[in-house]
Amino acid sequence: MSRLPLQPFARRAISQLCAALLVLLTALPLRAIDITELPNPELQTRYKALTHELRCMQCQNQSIADSPVGLASDLRGEVREMLIAGKSDDDIRDFMVARYGEFILFRPRFSPRNAWLWLMPAVLLALGAFVAVRIVRQRSKLVDVDDAAIDDDVRGPGKT
Amino acid sequence: MNRFLVPLGAFALLAVVLGIGIHRSADKGIIVSPLIGKPVPPFDLASLTDPGRKVSSQQLKGRAYLLNVWGSWCVTCREEHEMLLSIQKSNRVPLIGLNWQDQEAPALEWLEKLGNPYEMVLVDANGHTAIDLGVTGAPETFLVDASGIVTYKRVGAITPEIWRQDILPKLPAR
User: Fold this and answer.
1) ipTM greater than 0.90, yes or no?
2) Element (H, E) at B28
3) Which of B74, B103, B131 to mutate to test binding with chain A, by most A CBs within 10 Å of its CB?
4) How far apart are CA A102 and CA A109, in angstroms?
5) Cβ of B131 under 8 Å from any chain A Cβ?
């Protein structure tokens, strides 16, 4: 198969086309589901944070900010209205928890009931560190014993 | 022998924890409603069949009822419909429909074509009542007792088993 050398203008056209396609590809994730705009930037920031930390109860593994279902948009509307009404972030979280339970929060709150969930990583880390230190200590003691045994095998007893 | 004791113990503990998890997995994805044992959130909604008429939660007090959340777009509601019709026939408890995320025309057509098991259907036009009830999808059914307390919630269709085992025993004796 013979290859025709590309004309310079053709090469430029192809590279321009590729660049254009790349730009278009990066634009894909920008098709946002939620286009709500709040009256001021501070509310907008809080709105964005809140809608990202509330679970869409219909789809469960998406936040209400990312979900296209009707319930998620109703809940976003509720968050929007409460923010404009001057409610605090915690008021809004409490409102949601009272209706849907703790499960609606992606970041569970610290409570006596789920304390173990929060403390477990630290406990496990401490346990792991304890076991690791013990193993390393034991092994380092074994080194002397092992060396002696190997020395005996290789050189025969009594020879140095 | 002693050196196997710790791993064996850890394994046994893990087996117990996972065993409990598997045992409970039948309920996976069903979230217990925080509403159980609490008063039904107040509502005041227009009737689907008689748009001029409004019905409030206060007016419904005095007798137990099943509040059934449905929409004409909902496939599982279609499956549940036969059961709702037979509940109506049993005459044990009135069904109040809550039409959710729906349009008037298809909702009315649904009732006309499939039969209307509801004593009345209320329209949750802005979705506020569904949010107050903690509705996560359709169908969902709440059993509200005569004093207006939610005593039971079913996520998903009511089946004959659910009706017999979970709902009937909670209804006031005839």
Assistant:
1) no
2) none
3) B131
4) 8
5) yes
